[in-house]
Amino acid sequence: MAAVLEQTPEPDPRPAPRVAPQPDPSTAATPVSGLKPIDRLTSDSRLARINPESDAKTVLRYSSQFARNYIRSDYNFCAAKIAVARGGKVRALEAALRETSEWLRKTEKWLLRHQVRPIELPHDLIELTITRPLAGLLVRCLTQYDRVYARATERVLTGKITGDDRAGILNNAERRLKQIVQICMPDNDQYDFDGARREQ
Question: 162-190: string of b/e by CB count within 10 Å (b at 16+)?
């Protein structure tokens, strides 16, 4: 029969090492907005290979799912393409970005005619690289889109516009921003000097 150790071992006089508390994985990566966190931006390696005109950074605030998806999937691609755009492609991009920005400005102004108490929507922040002024204009359009999203949401919740009105406004805005991606895709030689796309 095995012997049973009856004697209590002496306590170790050395203090126990301190262990930093680990964050709860269920809450650590949960952003304030409730949107899925952006782990990395698509085309970040493409953008890193570009020699930009500037290495400016900006912090973009966003609340909408569309803005989150656009930032993650399309922004770096567009910023890289804008950085190497030449000739007619620059004119095509400039025209599309300015028209989009102006449409969003007018839409927000129209929404603001319906005065309501502002509602603070949950939001996230992300740092983006500005390769050229046109990339900065794209960031401005995304900021304007998110303001239109917030204004339209406020006015639906207070009964100033209908859900269909809101959907129409956002669909139109999203279509315009997606068009920027389509303009970025073709190479420079597929645009005429005036910015018109050459027929294939």
Answer: eeeebeebbeebbebbeebbebbeeeeee
In a domain, 125, yes or no: yes
Q: Is 122 exposed, middle or buried (0-12, 13-18, 19+ CB in 10 A)?
A: exposed
Q: Decide: helix, strand or coil at residue 59.
A: strand
pTM equals 0.74
Secondary element (H or E) of residue 101:
helix 88-112
Q: Is residue 1 part of a domain?
A: no
159, 162, 165, 169 alpha-carbon torsion, rounded to 10°: 50
Number of domains the chain contains: 1
pLDDT (mean) for 77-101: 95
3-class state of residue 10 by DSSP: coil
